[in-house]
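Batch manifest, entry 17 of 40.
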Amino acid sequence: MNIIGPDKLIWGVEDLAAAKQFAVDYGLTPQNEHYYSALDGTGIEIRAKDDKSLPAGLTTGSMLRKTVYGVKDQATLDAIKAEFTDREVKVLADGSLELVDDMGFVLGFQITIRTTNTEKAERVNAPGDVNREINQPGVTKTDVPRVQSLSHVVYFVPDSVIAEAFFANRLGFVTTDRFTGVGPFMRPAATQDHHTIFFIQAPAFMQGCEHFTFHMAGPTDVVQAGTNMVNKGYQSFWGPGRHLFGSNWFWYFKSPFGCNMEYDADMDQHDESWQGREAMIGPDNSQAFLLQYREKWAPGPGGPKP
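Output type: structure tokens
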């Protein structure tokens, strides 16, 4: 299956104004009354929880109502429709497909809306390996972090084995790494990102979205964007830091979507030759390091002493 990754997440939220403001402050661009996008067109659709256009929600009250995956072509849509003869597959007016997975999540599939991203990744200079142009500062006071692309979604599920089997056996996802007894990191066939999904084993009453995230150009943008969020009064949940599985830089914030929302950057890329790893979950395996935010200061008479 030539599935690329999540194109769009559709939300039914309790506080519409707060969710829309959060999306803008996070760095997404309003395209219309409901849709907020990254640079490549991927994004989130925000509606009130009682909006009649939304699919039925989970009994847990999760605000994530639908995950829409982008695929490469019509042939992939046809293959998905042919695969799921065991359940209803709706063909919507825009030609996309809609079905419910084995955990009860509503999934959509559409020919991808992603456009080619022309933004350069952050470049790092090191002795003997100069990657940034001569006379080009690595950071300036006028830099604005820009949200690049919808990256991945993490789900709480009551049975991570069933969830993994569905995406592997029915949709061709590959497990790249896993936390023992917790769940797998998975990627679809048409991307080399370390993961676009991570399943976390959790009690049934918790089922829903644990967090979702967008890619940034590099760690500087993650830290600058996160600093902007702190300065706007949003609550930091975890970060900044760098994960071990996936190697991505991260910074998570509490959000009005009933879950955490993350910035990430510099995720590992894998092909079919990758040998997946497994580890027990815990602080030593969750991140290579974790930083602590503090207010700006300058050395001098009023600053900290050595």
